[in-house]
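User: Can you predict the 3D structure for this chain?
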Amino acid sequence: MARDESTSSTFETGAFGRRHIGVGPDAQSAMLTAVGYDSLEALMPAAIPASIAVDERLDSVIPPAATEREAIAELRALADANTVRTPLIGLGYYGTETPAVIKRNVLENPSWYTAYTPYQPEISQGRLEALINFQTMVTDLTGLDTANASMLDESTAVVEGMLLARRASKSRSARFVVDTDAFPQTLALLTSRAEAVGIEIVQAPLATLSENAFADLGDHFGVFIQYPSASGRVWDPSAVIAASKAQGGLAVVAADLLALALITSPGELGADVAVGTSQRFGVPMGFGGPHAGYMAVRSGLERQLPGRLVGVSQDADGHPAYRLSLQAREQHIRREKATSNICTAQVLLAVMASMYAVYHGPHGIRFIATETAAKAQALAETLSGYGFVLASDAFFDTLRVSVPGSAALIVDRAREAGYHLHLVDDATIGISVDETTTATDLVAVAGAFDIPSSSVVAVDLTVTPPALPDGLRRTSSYLGHPVFNAHTSETAMMRYLKQLADRDYALDRGMIPLGSCTMKLNAATEMEAVTWPAFAGLHPFTPEADVVGSLALIEQLESWLAEVTGYDSVSLQPNAGSQGELAGLLAIRGYHRANGDDARTVCLIPSSAHGTNAASAVLAGMKVVVVACDELGNVDLDDLRAKIAANAETLAALMITYPSTHGVYEHDVTLITQAVHDAGGQVYVDGANLNALLGFARFGDFGGDVSHLNLHKTFCIPHGGGGPGVGPVAAKAHLAPYLPGHPMAQRRDHGAYTHDGGPISAAPYGSPSILPISWAYVRMMGAEGLKQATAAAVLSANYVATRLREHYPVLYTGENGLVAHECILDLRPLAVETGVSVDDVAKRLIDYGFHAPTMSFPVAGTLMVEPTESEDLPEIERFIEAMIQIRGEADAVGRGEWPADDNPLRNAPHTARSVIEGEWVHPYSRELAVYPVHTLIRNKYWAPVRRIDQAYGDRNLVCACPPPEAFEA
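Assistant: Here is the predicted structure, written as structure tokens:
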């Protein structure tokens, strides 16, 4: 039956907004009555402090809401403004074929792209297996012992490798030796990041350096080698590695995974750490990202790995089960002592890369690598035959050609023919071939050098390309596990992907009410442009004239984000929220140093803050001082003033989250920001909770100087099982010059401002291929639709809090008893009264068909619930009823009706196997175990494993694919 919307008392929104927002007018009316307000116009002023409220409409920059068809037409026009030529630039980005079965069943499948980070491993077994495959693929190819579940990109992985080497090395030196023949974007990122933490970068031409010259470089804690090098040279770095290790250094090698199918692995050469990207394993270039970087380490360094690590443990019945291991949430555990601020991964892209290896298998990967090398060999012989001099006679896929005085002319000719070459300098051209390069492409490239097609050497696949040095040809095996050899037909591959997806819980199954994480609708129309070749097929260093459409999209999105946040300039370069934090803090650091305030290094951070805040501050060269919170969850003003006074001459910044990490709007926020400014500090407002503010208040209006945003939260980029993400940084005009720049950016200008800070990501615009998602969201919602979404999110959270308050105390509320877009349910009294823990409740929710809310953050023993604006009232009610019934089950345990160690909560989740296998000996029925409410009977999600023993997995660390025998009964 159609809804009657004639009585709506809500703000204006377009047709798309009515589809994005799950609660319609009738539902909103019922919810408002329960909360105690007659309209959203009455609710929102009661929740949001008047001192920060925006009076005017935020539509001076954002156009009125477009329909879905109109938005797609505008995106198509932007895509058509790009000119897609065949990129042969290389430098870590290459053409690749995404197998259609992976594109359709992973990249375009909401079962994969709407899943959350696998913090509830029992309902994440599918993507955890895919990540174990990724880790195994990386360890096999790199010849090292343990790999993590992916990094943000290659260049940031190199930085993390440098930081790992520093903390693991026995050398007390602050010097890090870097090969000059590394990718230029990596060199720029290393230089920028090293300076902030007191590391001295020493560059040297390691491939041609004599032993004595290397010794002259002096003491150092590590060495970095590009393998193959940026110029394409394939050389044996084992002597350099040995010389560095002899004086206490660790060796970090950035290795091309495809090349490693043919050349000796870093582990066999003596490397301690291998890093790189898996982009060319089936992930489109996308103008720079997102792609899954990787990191692998030798035995003994696995507990130093940053980011996420998937391991094998066992469930309550002793069956193998996957889960995150070791430092999965290091930032929350160690905070300012954390060794990395990376708390995410690039899961969706790592899944794609791992499935590329599953799809092709070891023989297919070797064939692709051999064919690629053979193409480079044919081109090299063609060029040499016409007298062109190559920089090296040992290479895999990249050639450097000496053309004194003619480089620009030849590059222009190639461009006219439809190809992008790398203009290294006035006398040098770089050419990188890949799996997509054809014989026709080789003829066209040769033509740019005035070589006739009849003289182009044919590709020879009958011999190993002689350009691969005999001493470096790989003899060790890889990808030997059955998973890489069993799915040889598309039928088998399709079924394997479906099988894994069925083991997971994603938004296509039901609500994921995770506080702080904003798991809301990722509309299909928003996703549509991601795979268009005009966006996906662009190399990040494509000349400006050929990416006019993408740059226009980026500029529009930057201006829209500046408008809704109250800032002057935005950088979209950070490719994760943690990187946006770091970029903002580095901007503050740069600003103080430019003013001669080098002593301003103290960063004040509330005790409730997300753990990455403190970790990012440390990596920005700052000292963290913790500010207390009061019993209401607000920043303790007295303690803040005391900390400001104690650090008056050294105060650099305050980092706060608004609304607070406790899910409330702090009424004293303007007093807080003013106190910091009066002391000469800057205010960093963490934008993680912007979904509770958008359209009603702006960070820049109530004292914020800089913020990062999470486009994978407020602006609808899907979480992808734990990545991709985009974490733009927005700042006031005085900080704009210190926002991330990039030496290879097509433009320095961002509207009226230039960004001249050091780079924060490998690509100039971070992960641009997913920016059309957020562009489409803003374009189809319009300013009023965004405002409506915020109001609906706040209403839904307050409705949940109101309905559950009598069953679970709501820990923090604002002055009018209201929460923001999330509420914290305090389960600590329940644990005392009944012995039922927050873990028991979270696992029991799986039996009811739900992903649990955020557990024990920011307060141990609590659940933080965020329903978002996208869930409809029946789904919200289903969650509420589940929580109420679980409370009843807990009370039954407290009354002694079930033993404390044998009840539906302690034994949750229940698998199908657990209720049909053997004799049922529990004091509750099978039906209650798996069908606690009758609505589950026809629509049951079955957890694939029982509760996982996390401690067992950490004691017995296994982070690669277990043999099939491990899963036998």
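Confidence is low (pLDDT under 50) at residues 1-10. The chain is about 35% helix and 10% strand.
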